[in-house]
Amino acid sequence: MPRLLEHERPEAVGMLRAGSGVTDVERQINCARSTVNRLWERYNVTELYTPG
Questions:
Q1: Could you tell me the pTM of the whole model?
Q2: In this structure, is the dihedral angle defined by the CA atoms of residues 4, 13, 40 and 49, taken in order, positive or negative?
Q3: InterPro entries attached here (predicted)?
Q4: Domain residues of the chain, as ranges?
Q5: Alpha helices, DSSP H only, in the chain?
């Protein structure tokens, strides 16, 4: 699977915040479920989209 691009991160978080499920987000953005889960967990802790 391709990496999650920088401009896709806020889109994914927005979808999750709007109530979309992880499966819906992974299919829409074409990335792994684990990537979406890590992004969502990181966002909930730090409110940042980027790693680190």
A1: 0.86
A2: positive
A3: Homeodomain-like_sf
A4: 8-46
A5: 8-17, 22-29, 33-46
Q: Which CATH architecture has domain 8-46?
A: Orthogonal Bundle (1.10)
Under the phi-then-psi rule, with left for phi > 0, alpha for psi from -120 to 50, and beta for the rest, what region is 24?
Answer: alpha
CA 26 to CA 36: how far, in whole Å?
Answer: 7
| Whole-number pLDDT of residue 1 | 67
By three-state DSSP, how is residue 4 classified?
coil
Neighbouring C-alpha atoms within 13 Å toward the C-beta of 45: 9
DSSP letter at 7 equals T
pLDDT tens-digit readout, 10-44? 999 999 999 999 999 999 999 999 999 999 999 99
